Amino acid sequence: MSDLLTDSQFDQYRVLIYDASGITFSDTNRSILDSRLKERLREKQLTDVMEYYKLVTSDQAEFKAFLDSITTNLTRFFRNQPHFDALVNYVIPHVIEEKKRTGGTKIHIWSAGCSTGEEPYTIAMILKDKLPAPYTFDIIASDISLKSLMVGQQGFYPESRISGIPQDYLDKFFTKVDKGYQVKPELMSTIRFDYHNLRHDSGSRNLDVVFCRNVLIYFDEAAQKATIDRFYNAMSPNSYLFIGHSESLFGMDTKFEFLKTDWACLYQKKL
Description:
Helix content: 40-55%
Low-confidence stretches: none
Strand order of the largest sheet: 6-2-1-7-8-10-9
Shape: globular
Oligomer: single chain
């Protein structure tokens, strides 16, 4: 039992969070909400959870800060390497074939739930290194956490955060600075960091590749399906979707086709 929220208060917060973000809190992860609320109460110098509830339902900036606090941001460079192997060896060659057919040369990618930027920067490094001329790319990197987006936009990572980056990529794409590494401008310019709540349509269209890894696990089935449908509508014909290795569209009524490559499993919008 939570020592902060009564059951009815927990239900009020749970509904508020779900309606705004699709993130589901249940009895199993109730303690996370409890601890994050304690942090926000201390920050705002409040003692009453319903007083804070009034604040988050009337102050949009505080509500964003609250959502920021309850989303976990575990990430790292080159997380789940097989996905990137599949990107290089299977997805990009097939996307290029599609571009040849349609006459385009720019590959459009969305890193949804990008956290502090390690995923989009990983994708950008790989494409800068592997993508043949005349093809170029751009990446939209979005998250519900403004704090995380600011880290990505600044492109500075302490030494403890750069493990996993191959040495030649580190030399090529980062500048060693005091206490860490700064992403070089040529790589930063390929990524646009943008606040976005996956509860809503992003407005993006004709995306060739979408990464949304380890985000759907925070949604219930209805929110998962709605998010997946929005991805489908945002993507171009014969495009590719990566989700987390512990996530699956199995059993979901979706138009995506399951795709098993030699490197990793992913999904395709096949038209």
